[in-house]
Fold:
Amino acid sequence: MTVLKVLLTGCAVFALAGCSGGTPGEADAQTALAEEIARQTDNAVVSIAGFRKTDGQDTSEGEVRSYRFFYEATVNFPEGYFSQCLNTDSLAPMERFQMGMMCSQRFTPFDTGPFRPQQPGAAVNVRGEIRLQRTEQGWISDRVMIQRSDQPASR
Structure:
């Protein structure tokens, strides 16, 4: 009977060892999204509401374990911010330079342009993918992709 208990305990330990670390939670992904938006907006004060996971996929490259976290969220930007300036990293170099100039707080040619500043209380729907890597300290973001929806967020 004692041998059976030892065997069962050993099997349970091995089974649980494969689960250690699990998958990243929504809090890990939401933190990565908030950090990326802060980076792209020169630390504009934004709030993220309605963050939800839409899909996920475990991957690994060699010994590095990664997780692709697909999400949807609603982002509330400060009044006057141009949400079109979000995710200029995906543009070609010259377009990125032009958008960077237009989105800079030092140069705002939007008076007659196609972009309009956020109105008070306006929100924007975004969706995308966050790639997280498993480290000894937990999950860290490796890449954050953001797609802005052309439709305003519903309240």
Remarks:
- The chain has three helices and four strands.
- Helices lie at 2-17, 26-40, 93-103.
- The chain has one domain: 25-152.
- Residues 36 and 45 are 12 Å apart (CA to CA).
